[in-house]
Specification:
This protein is 50% helix and 8% strand. It is built from 9 helices and 3 strands. Strands 1-2-3 form a 3-stranded antiparallel beta sheet. A hairpin with a 2-residue loop joins β1 and β2. α2 crosses α4.
Length: 191
């Protein structure tokens, strides 16, 4: 692994395992994951393998060989890609900050960014947005359906982003969580 690390082994494994293919913006080249994600995935699988080997040793008195594939570990870290294909026949694509479930996306705030979601208490989110915008935003009955919101998430998150941009991050997240909405602050690299 040391030799591979010096030669960009993490990036090669991340690419070969599919991490890069789904990371980035739709119309741009793929982005390298932050840090050593392929190595972290392999390390996690190695730790699990070591713990299981120790358990077998304690039960049977025999040692075990733990063989971890860096590329397979990188592939396992993007399990949604194969799951989406097997379940729905959908080939995953880069989607920027939109989560693969189409239920979460990063949105700008007045002083940064937050992870917003249309999951949780939909009525509370809809009423909050409508109260701030002074209109019937997202009041149509179709928006009440979670699957409809996922299918039309681009339009929905554009509306949420325009609305959220008026709030400072901390206030937006605090108010959302008081309403039982799964919002979270997004820290920049300096933070």
């Amino acid at each position: 692994v040391e030799h591979a690390a010096g030669c960009g082994g993490n990036l090669v494994a991340a690419a070969a395992g599919g991490m890069l293919y789904v990371n980035g913006w739709p119309d741009e080249p793929p982005l390298q994951p932050l840090g050593l994600q392929a190595y972290h995935a392999a390390g996690m699988h190695g730790a699990i393998g070591a713990l299981l080997a120790l358990r077998v040793r304690d039960r049977c008195g025999r040692g075990q060989l733990v063989d971890i594939s860096l590329q397979e570990s990188a592939l396992a870290a993007v399990e949604h890609v194969t799951g989406l294909y097997r379940e729905r026949g959908v080939v995953a694509r880069r989607a920027g900050t939109l989560h693969w479930t189409r239920s979460f996306r990063a949105v700008p705030t007045r002083d940064g960014a937050a992870l917003a979601s249309h999951m949780g208490d939909w009525d509370a989110l809809r009423d909050w947005i409508a109260a701030d915008s002074g209109g019937a935003t997202l009041r149509e009955a179709c928006w009440k359906d979670a699957e409809y919101r996922r299918q039309h998430c681009d339009e929905l998150f554009d509306a949420i982003a325009a609305w959220a941009s008026r709030y400072p991050t901390a206030e937006l997240v605090e108010q959302a969580q008081l309403r039982r909405l799964p919002f979270a602050p997004i820290a920049d690299l300096e933070q």
